[in-house]
Amino acid sequence: MIAFNEFEGQFFDGAYDLDRQPAASSEPANQLIATGFLKQKSRIDPPNIFAGLGFLEFRDAGVAQFDDALRRGLATYANPDFNSIAGMSGSPVYNLDRGALCGMVARGGLEPDGGLRIYFIDIFDILQFLDAVATRSNNVSYTKDRSRL
Q: Can you give the pLDDT at residue 40?
């Protein structure tokens, strides 16, 4: 089970139960969203903590050339109110076209011209890991169908 902040929609309305709600790999050109906390917009000033929520929209741009477990996401923001996506690592990625959780932000960056590049771990690979944890396996070994990448 994965918990998210409140959001007016089906995805961010509480815990995301992977046994009951869909998880599916993304495909090129699918519309994606990720929500998490931007380090630049957050601060800790004891005893107060302010968490600046980041809500990123982007499109799937296929598998990363250097790692089959990572997919790329691309977007362009005209006037972003942030210049870094630091802090978004680990944030969930939801596929609006497929109506399913499709991954988790690994890393990325915002270019000076507003171009956004995100690398996210494919849900297929995350589920392989979770299955190994659930079965208390000391390792995990699997193959991916490269024709679907």
A: 85
